[in-house]
Design goal:
Layout (H helix, E strand, L loop, with lengths): L8 H9 L45 H12 L1 H23 L24 H27 L6 H31 L4 H19 L3 H11 L5 H50 L1
Helix pairs in contact: 2-3, 3-4, 3-8, 4-5, 5-6, 5-7, 6-8, 7-8
InterPro entries: Mpv17_PMP22
Keywords: Membrane, Transmembrane, Transmembrane helix
Subcellular location: Membrane
């Protein structure tokens, strides 16, 4: 056996102590995220977003109001007239439904006739309401146009306060006098009865109007566009016309009861005089 020489010792050390490094397989680089590595498609879906502010999502709901605004700008008188007729019709219908008498108890088929579904509705009363509203539509429209074009100061609070006070002092009592006087006159009442109706209803309605219309008028002139003020006030006016119609009906019933008492008191002296003459 031949002993290894000095020159072969480094070679033997490298052969005995040197271990080759294992080869590593390089994976192909992927542009997809590790969460979607096993997904069949490499493209990630992009979320759909609506551009613009959130109030644009309600744009389809505003289309009827835009249509009304275009009609108001195109033919303001016709639009105002039909809007007022609808408001007065709904207000009178609501007032009649609230003040209708209660249905009688159900009876047998052989008994008396049962009350119909619309026996409580008075069409003549509705015609009176439509006549009053139709005559007041255009003057009321011009009044609010004039009120919007005047009393415009540097202070918005002063402007709104002045408009509210002028409307409550000038327009509201005149309109209430017109409303109740026309209701009484169209019912066939005379001048004395018309004056009594106005005296019995206008102070109460004017006082109660301070609870509703100052806030409505201020909000309308502050935040509502010119072409939408009539429809905004009209929505509130449905409830207000309901109140005015009910107040007018109560006054008419009170006047009818007063007439009955007067007739009764007048008839009693006549009857006493006849009995005295017969004796």
């Amino acid at each position: 056996m031949i002993a290894p020489g000095g020159a072969s010792r480094p070679l033997l050390r490298r052969m005995l102590f040197h271990r080759p490094h294992p080869t590593r397989l390089k994976r192909p680089k992927s542009t997809s995220s590790p969460h979607h590595a096993d997904s069949p498609s490499s493209e990630t879906p992009t979320p759909r977003t609506i551009p613009g502010p959130i109030w644009l999502w309600l744009e389809p709901l505003a289309s009827p109001f835009h249509a009304y605004g275009r009609m108001q700008n195109r033919s303001p008188y016709v639009t105002q007239l039909f809007s007022t007729l609808i408001i007065y019709f709904l207000g009178d219908l609501s007032a009649q439904s609230f003040s209708r008498p209660q249905a009688p108890a159900s009876t047998s088929s052989s008994g008396s006739k049962s009350e119909g579904a619309l026996d409580w509705y008075d069409p003549l009363r509705a015609v009176r309401a439509l006549t009053i509203g139709g005559l007041a539509a255009i003057p009321g429209y011009h009044w609010f146009l004039w009120l919007g074009n005047n009393f415009n100061y540097r202070s918005k609070i002063l402007s709104l306060g002045t408009k509210v006070v002028v409307n409550q002092i000038a327009f509201t009592p005149l309109f209430n006098c017109y409303f109740f006087a026309m209701q009484s006159a169209l019912s066939g009442a005379g001048l004395r009865e018309v004056a009594e109706r106005v005296r019995n209803t206008v102070p109460t309605s004017w006082w109660n109007s301070w609870k509703v219309w100052p806030a409505v008028t201020a909000f309308s002139f502050a935040f509502v566009g010119r072409e939408f003020r009539s429809i905004f006030a009209g929505v509130v006016a449905i409830g207000w016309q309901t109140y005015l119609s009910m107040l007018n009906q109560r006054a008419a019933e009170a006047e009818g009861m007063g007439k009955g008492k007067d007739v009764k008191h007048v008839a009693q002296p006549r009857k006493a005089a006849r009995s005295a003459a017969a004796a």
